[in-house]
Amino acid sequence: MDSSEITPELLLHAYAAGVFPMAESRDDPAIFWVDPRHRGIFPLDNFHISRSLSRKIRRAAFTIRTNTDFAGVVQACAARDETWINDTIRRLYQALHAMGHAHSLEVWEGETLVGGVYGVTLGGAFFGESMFSRRTDASKIALAYLVDRLRLGGFQLFDTQFLTPHLKSLGAVEISRAAYHARLAKALEAKADFNRPGPPPSPQDLLQRSTHTS
Q1: CA separation for the pair 37, 133 (Å, rounded)
Q2: SS3 176
Q3: What is the pLDDT along the chain (214 residues), one digit of tens a residue?
Q4: CA–CA dist 33, 158 (Å, integer)
Q5: Which helix (H) or strand (E) holds 209?
Q6: 3-state secondary structure (DSSP) of residue 127
Q7: pTM of this prediction?
Q8: Phi (first) and psi of residue 196, to 5 degrees
Q9: Strand stretches in 138-208, DSSP E
Q10: How far is CA 137 from the centre of its chain?
Q11: Which is deepest, 68, 96, 136, 156, by most CB within 10 Å?
């Protein structure tokens, strides 16, 4: 599809219909739509925090922030040898962020951004787009805080698009396209707010609310 025809509003309609955009590479200006036969999701009550990850969170070596450097998170997610994030996608998600429909959760080491995740919100659905890690387990820590935030914010669906071994180890599962669309329809009717929980919780509060540890 000609990327010049895609607007932030069209992008939101696409998410509501269960599809999301990708590019073949950072240098390919074209955008294509994806509606996988099998969809990855995170059940919000089943995020898995291992004992080693729990210890790392408890050490509080990192600071968690939200929406303080959305562009930086997107840029870091795209800083790979191969990426589906081209300039058009960056521009569109920056526009969604300005509209309040795209958010980042960031892991900071001092004043250095070392991990994070970003995604789109619509109704009670969070559509996870990409994440990155520049320190061991930084992306896992970001996901732990994100799942907690989504639960507290009233979200019903955390879409991961695809199921990877990394996400599966944290509790993500794969469902059929039909099952996903049914869950999406219910989630879109819900009212949720990414900012409702306020500042990120302390490590102790996060771990106390996260009962699925082993």
Answers
A1: 28
A2: strand
A3: 556 688 999 999 999 999 999 999 988 888 999 999 999 999 999 899 999 999 999 998 999 999 999 999 999 999 988 898 999 999 999 999 999 999 999 999 999 999 999 999 999 999 999 999 999 999 999 999 999 999 999 999 999 999 999 999 999 999 999 999 999 999 999 999 999 999 999 999 999 988 644 4
A4: 19
A5: helix 203-209
A6: strand
A7: 0.94
A8: -55, -40
A9: 157-161, 173-176
A10: 16
A11: 96
DSSP structural state of residue 102: E
Give 161's strand partners: 40
Handedness of CA 168, 173, 175, 181 (dihedral sign): negative
Q: Are 167 and 105 in contact (CB under 8 A)?
A: no
Please name which of 70, 66, 38 lies closest in space to residue 168, comparing C-alpha atoms.
38
Residues constituting the chain: 214
Q: How many CB atoms lie within 10 A of CB 171?
A: 17
Measured CA angle at 162 (ends 159, 164), to 5 deg: 115
Domains of the chain (ranges, CATH numbers): 36-82+102-209 (3.40.630.70)
CA distance 149 to 195: 8
Closest by CA position to 140, among listed 168, 178, 163: 168
Place of tokens 């599966």: 168
Whether 75 contacts 91, CB under 8 Å: no
